[in-house]
């Protein structure tokens, strides 16, 4: 049995050259990464990028075509069972029994981990409370709503307090309050020291939750770094948005001539955006506009976000990532 180290900086999961081929599809292509104990690690990519296939290899549901997987330094590539007691898995689709109630499903999962009757009853009740499912505890899983199902699947994944938790798109296709509740629960688990491996195609979710993020596209890991480093890469960009009133003509041309350090873009009738790699001096700009009878009612500095980094690194349009959100409903 593999033991957990409880030492900050310990590598909990290590994937080296991880590859999965399905006939003519190279779903995951020589991917290398490590996940440190206690961190929230995000795998971010569009549909078909290889996220689920990677999770399946890490958790023992799929056999890698090539590469190695280590948990706490021990090679488990050939026998993931050795690490099974360390992990909780929340798959992208339900793995629970439709004919059992919420409470029965959780108790059944707990029994698989050898928990005694009293302990599993207590744990099931606590998790049902935590996810606001206490009132539905006696109802069959089959009649749960999508969000309720998702929450119960997560509860089942953490029933045994696993030190490592894998979640495959935990908030896809559920409503805003449930998604928020799940993110809060993940933040709580992290603060208790759980190592979390999360896949998502919601850039904001990765930005909000993850300390380190890997971008995966077409089976390849194209970038991996801390959120801070990823964003710092484009932090020398300064973006300011001006809200204008009384601006009937397009002033981007004259502005461009007068302030050649920046590029100007008219976002709407009243909003103008300036990008530059120099610090922006507002006074001359405002004066320039006022001299042309245009009032600047607001100037906002926009912080470059992970979205900007993602687009710059992968070349994938945000629209493509955004439209994925609609595949299962509203995700935010
Ligand atoms: N069992 C399988 N047989 C054949 N091809 C597969 C199989 N599972 C996955 N694939 C292919 O592998 C690629 C990666 O799929 P995967 O499900 O890992 O993507 P994903 O990033 O999880 O996408 P999504 O965001 O849609 O969940 C896709 O091209 C998919 O069609
Ligand atoms: Mg998937």
Would you kindly provide a written description of the structure presented here, covering whatever features stand out?
Helix content is 32%, strand content 27%. The strands form three sheets. It has a six-stranded mixed beta sheet with strand order 6-7-8-3-9-10, with helices on both faces. A four-stranded antiparallel beta sheet has the order 2-1-4-5, covered by helices on one side. Strands 12-13-11-14 form a four-stranded antiparallel beta sheet, with helices on one face. The longest helix has 16 residues, at 176-191. It has 332 residues and is of the alpha/beta class. The protein has two domains: 11-232, 3-Layer(aba) Sandwich (Rossmann fold), CATH 3.40.50.300; 238-302, 2-Layer Sandwich (Alpha-Beta Plaits), CATH 3.30.70. The chain binds adenosine-5'-triphosphate and magnesium ion.
Helix/strand layout:
Layout: E1 11-22, E2 25-36, E3 40-44, H1 51-59, E4 66-71, E5 74-75, E6 87-90, H2 102-112, H3 117-130, H4 146-157, E7 164-168, H5 176-191, E8 195-200, H6 203-209, E9 212-217, E10 220-226, H7 227-232, E11 238-245, H8 252-258, E12 263-266, E13 271-276, H9 282-290, E14 295-302, H10 306-314, H11 318-324
Parallel strand pairs: 3-8, 3-9, 6-7, 7-8
Antiparallel strand pairs: 1-2, 1-4, 4-5, 9-10, 11-13, 11-14, 12-13
Helix pairs in contact: 2-3, 2-4
């Amino acid at each position: 049995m593999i033991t957990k180290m409880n030492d900050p900086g310990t590598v909990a999961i290590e994937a080296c050259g991880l590859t999965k081929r399905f006939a003519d599809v190279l779903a995951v292509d020589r991917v290398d990464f490590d996940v440190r104990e206690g961190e929230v690690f995000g795998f971010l990519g569009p549909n078909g990028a290889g996220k689920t296939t990677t999770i399946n290899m890490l958790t023992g549901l799929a056999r890698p075509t090539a590469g190695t997987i280590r948990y706490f330094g021990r090679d488990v590539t050939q026998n993931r069972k050795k690490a099974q007691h360390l992990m909780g898995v929340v798959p992208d689709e339900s793995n629970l029994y439709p004919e059992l109630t919420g409470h029965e499903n959780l108790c059944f999962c707990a029994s698989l981990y050898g928990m005694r009757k009293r302990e599993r009853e207590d744990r099931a009740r606590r998790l049902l409370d935590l996810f606001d499912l206490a009132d539905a505890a006696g109802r069959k899983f089959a009649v749960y709503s999508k969000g309720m199902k998702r929450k119960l699947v997560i509860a089942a994944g953490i029933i045994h307090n696993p030190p490592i938790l894998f979640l495959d798109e935990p908030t896809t296709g559920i409503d805003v309050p449930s998604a928020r509740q799940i993110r809060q629960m993940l933040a709580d688990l992290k603060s208790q020291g759980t190592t979390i491996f999360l896949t998502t195609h919601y850039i904001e979710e990765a930005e909000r939750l993850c300390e380190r993020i890997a971008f995966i596209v077409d089976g390849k890991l194209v970038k991996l770094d801390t959120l801070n480093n990823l964003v710092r890469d484009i932090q020398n960009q300064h973006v300011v948005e001006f809200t204008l009133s009384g601006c009937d003509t397009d002033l981007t041309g004259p502005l461009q001539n007068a302030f050649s350090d920046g590029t100007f873009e008219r976002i709407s009738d009243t909003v103008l955006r300036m990008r530059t790699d120099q610090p922006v001096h507002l006074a001359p700009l405002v004066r320039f506009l006022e001299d042309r009878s245009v009032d600047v009612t607001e100037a906002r500095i926009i912080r470059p976000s992970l979205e900007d980094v993602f687009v710059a690194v992968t070349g994938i349009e945000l629209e493509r990532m955004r439209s994925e959100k609609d595949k299962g409903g509203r995700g935010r």
